[in-house]
Amino acid sequence: MIKKLRKKFIWITMSCVTLILIIVFGILCFSNYHHMQQEIDDNLSRTLMMQQKEEIPKFEFNDHKDDKAFGMHNAFRVETDLNGTIISIHAMNLDVDQESLQNILSTMDIKDKQKGILQSQSLAYQIKQTSSNYQIAFVDISANLKDMKNLIITSMIVGTFAFLAFLLLSFILSNWALRPVQHAWDQQKQFVADASHELKTPLTVILADSDILLAHANDTIDHQVKWINSIQSEAQRMKKLVESLLFLAKSDANRLPVEFQNINFSDIVWNCILPFESIAYEHGIHLHSEIENDLYVSGNEAQLKQVMLIFLDNACKYTPAKGKISIHLKKNNEKLVCKIHNTGSYISKEEQAHIFERFYRCDKARVHEGGYGLGLPIAKSIMDAHHGQIQVESNEVEGCCFQLILPLKNG
Description:
Elements: H1 2-47, E1 58-59, E2 75-80, E3 86-91, E4 95-96, H2 98-107, E5 115-118, E6 123-129, E7 134-140, H3 142-177, H4 179-215, H5 225-252, E8 261-264, H6 265-282, E9 286-291, E10 296-299, H7 301-318, E11 324-332, E12 335-342, H8 349-352, H9 375-385, E13 389-395, E14 399-409
Parallel strand pairs: 1-4, 9-11
Antiparallel strand pairs: 2-3, 2-7, 5-6, 6-7, 8-10, 10-14, 11-12, 12-14, 13-14
Helix pairs in contact: 1-3, 4-5, 5-9, 6-7, 7-9
């Protein structure tokens, strides 16, 4: 998919670049052509009013090796009768061969065509008819035709190099621009693989227990109750996993409930601590709390309660016997800061960069006890929705400390 997306990105980019180059060089060539045509017309008009000069160089037809710029130097006026026979030639600094000119005039349709270009002689002409004769102005345009040709060739060369340069740049930009997409795509594939793996284990257990029950179809429920309990336990695990996945999917799609209201976060913390006091006591863990009363935030009570339960549950799971868990809640300027600290666990700097990734576990050996690795990603998505932050501090001596920071709201 990424390769197709990269090709599409490059194709669209180069299509736009090609269109822009065509427009730019097209405008340049058209502007130059229009300017050249305007100057030719001006010189033809002036040439029709030109007076004859003496001691002038000879003008050679079909000899334009100098490629001098056209203008009054390479322009002359011819007066003919109504039959096209030359009466007089008026030139400035030019000596025009009358015989050659007469041959050219014989090929021209001077009666019907008032203006044109003689390609073989590189001459532009304009005809003015009077009652008794024709006044014909000629201007040498060989240098300008060559300039126009050179401009077109130069535009094509520059355009080709510009196209190749933009093509190379588009390859580089496609790799840079699609890097986040590649990362998201890899995460999605890993997410699907991990979710499938986590669902496979309880499904395998349920199927195995079901086979055992089917093999003892004549037994009573009391005799097979342990297999039924096992099926129910694995089904509950699957339900919890599916609910977590659905929550994260809604979070990704920005479809989480946004029913925010002023809530007492101090009460939420107290209510979440109470059920863990007995759990901590059973595991020989000392639970200490310092909660500042009546600290209010704007948010969803159920979701913020879920965040606290996630961190307290992790603290109890990863704190060894005779360890300590401390919960501090206080006001810091216009922020609410809740610290959950536990001893006996350590998260390295490398692991801290990944702990909020889905299905990531610091302790790979404690797969089932540590859950599915979705708790912290869920907590982060909730905190992000509440414009909050989660900070992590950890060292081998003091253990691990998570800080939850939320904007305060007046109660």
